[in-house]
């Protein structure tokens, strides 16, 4: 159109092929014209509650893709709704053109850990395929009783959802099933930390029976989980390791070692072993302190911010800090990590824990880890872990035998493991499992 004059007819043809591949609609479009048109474009609009990922490819001719926000513009809204974004391909006019558009709705995952640092570390690396949403269930649920804002529930710690109320958990599970919302459970724990098995095991068992897919952070943990609970035959199980938190601590203002020592009042030139994170029933901090007190070295120093309150701290100057655990801001936590040469993760190998985020701290900062023979740490850390056992005598012997070469080997392995446990590596298989769980529901 030029002014009010109608352009003459343009002879041509169009062949369109539409197909579905998984959750993706594929448009293959072939255009032929008698002469080049003034302009050729294809636009795919997006509504606010259903974000799209659009991939374009041009097989014949040339084109330029763009994604344009249009929210609030009158041309893109009506009295009852609006479009928020347009995915557009502008083709260079020619007599023959062919292009393909692959349109995939992002998976809207309602996460029961929305805003937690685990969620915030993982979800940016799934942004091309998944959008995180606040949980539609639980005590802090968003107002979405029909689950219209989510395609999937990403469950983390079941006890966060409805505490110790089995009836409430079962009611939520029934609502999800009635709405045909699949459940993907990241199995952080075998049972909650307060160890009331008679209360929580029926709750965990109910979620296990309902789960469409489970993410295990180790093969060892998968075996423990599947031994304890019965899962449906349809349930998909995947081992996707726990990512590291190095970037998070860097963003928090990780100081250099000298600055960290100054802030904490620590003396330089010590082999400093740190204990961080919350106290747990399986966390053998008392035995670690006794092991340090029993070792023969005078160049070692233990700094512990993880006491539960019932420990007896040995009267030993090598235990420079022994403080009861309390929540601190990320800058303080990062400072503590920066002051350490290694972390000690001494957990009971016979306990009921499946994972610890503290391993994400040591790997994230490239620190060696003095570890017990807990199966999770053995698998997760690999050569970045230095085995010390879990008795005071074995810990003392390991400290006495510890060499600079052993520490350097573990440090090198931790840096290598850091690359393997980057969230950018772990996001894609998580998104793939989400999609598989949704598609399996559709095939059922």
What does this structure look like?
The chain is elongated, with a radius of gyration of 28 Å. The mean pLDDT is 97. The longest helix has 21 residues, at 423-443. Strands 9-8-10-11-12-13 form a six-stranded parallel beta sheet, with helices on both faces. A six-stranded parallel beta sheet has the order 16-15-14-17-18-19, sandwiched between helices. With 444 residues, it is of the alpha/beta class. It starts with 11 loop residues before the first strand and ends with a helix. The protein has three domains: 12-76 and 83-105, Jelly Rolls; 107-240, Rossmann fold (3-Layer(aba) Sandwich), CATH 3.40.50; 249-420, Rossmann fold, CATH 3.40.50. Helix 7 (257-264) crosses helix 9 and helix 8 packs across helix 12. The protein is 32% helix and 27% strand. The protein has 14 helices and 19 strands.
List its traits.
444 residues, alpha/beta, Rossmann fold, 3 domains, six-stranded parallel β-sheet, 14 helices, 19 strands, 32% helix, elongated
Tell me the name of the CATH homologous superfamily of the largest domain.
Answer: Glycogen Phosphorylase B
CATH topology of the largest domain: Rossmann fold
Given the helix and strand composition, which structural class is it? alpha/beta
Report the CATH architecture of the largest domain.
Answer: 3-Layer(aba) Sandwich
What profile does the largest beta sheet have? Answer: 6 strands, parallel
């Amino acid at each position: 159109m030029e002014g009010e004059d109608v352009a003459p007819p343009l002879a041509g043809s169009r062949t369109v092929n539409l197909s579905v591949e998984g959750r993706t609609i594929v448009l293959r479009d072939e255009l032929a014209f008698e002469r080049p048109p003034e302009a050729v474009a294809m636009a795919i609009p997006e509504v606010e509650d259903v974000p799209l990922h659009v991939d374009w490819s041009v097989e014949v001719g040339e084109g330029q893709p763009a994604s344009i926000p249009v929210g609030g513009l009158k041309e893109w809204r009506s009295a009852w709704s609006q479009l928020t974004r347009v995915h557009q391909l502008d083709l260079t006019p020619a007599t023959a053109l062919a292009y393909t558009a692959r349109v995939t709705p992002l998976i809207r995952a309602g996460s029961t850990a929305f805003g937690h640092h685990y969620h915030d570390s993982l979800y940016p690396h799934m942004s091309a395929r998944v959008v995180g949403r606040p949980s539609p269930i639980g005590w802090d649920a968003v107002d979405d009783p029909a689950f219209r804002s989510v395609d999937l529930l990403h469950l983390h710690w079941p006890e966060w959802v409805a505490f110790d109320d089995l009836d409430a958990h079962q009611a939520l599970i029934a609502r999800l099933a009635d709405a045909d919302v699949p459940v993907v459970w990241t199995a952080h724990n075998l049972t909650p930390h307060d160890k009331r098995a008679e209360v929580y095991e029926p709750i965990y068992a109910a979620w296990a029976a309902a789960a469409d897919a489970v993410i295990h952070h180790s093969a060892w943990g998968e075996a423990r989980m599947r031994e304890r609970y019965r899962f449906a035959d349809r349930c998909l199980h995947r081992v996707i390791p726990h990512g590291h938190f190095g970037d998070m601590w860097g963003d928090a203002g990780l100081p250099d070692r000298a600055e960290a020592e100054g802030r904490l009042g620590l003396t330089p030139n010590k082999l400093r072993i740190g204990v961080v994170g919350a106290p747990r029933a399986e966390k053998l901090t008392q035995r670690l302190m006794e092991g340090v007190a029993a070792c023969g070295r005078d160049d070692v120093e233990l700094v512990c911010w993880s006491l539960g309150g019932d420990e007896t701290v040995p009267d030993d100057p090598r235990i420079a800090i022994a403080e009861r655990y309390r929540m601190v801001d990320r800058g303080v936590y990062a400072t503590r990590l920066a002051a350490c040469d290694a972390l000690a993760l001494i957990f009971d190998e016979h306990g009921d824990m499946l994972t610890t985020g503290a391993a994400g701290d040591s790997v994230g900062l490239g620190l060696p880890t003095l570890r017990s023979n807990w199966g999770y740490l053995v698998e997760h850390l690999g050569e970045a872990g230095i085995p010390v056992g879990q008795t005071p005598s074995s810990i003392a012997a390991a400290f006495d035998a510890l060499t600079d070469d052993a520490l350097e080997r573990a440090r090198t392995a931790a840096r290598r493991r850091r690359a393997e446990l980057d969230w950018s590596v772990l996001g894609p298989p998580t998104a793939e499992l989400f999609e598989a769980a949704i598609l399996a529901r559709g095939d059922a």
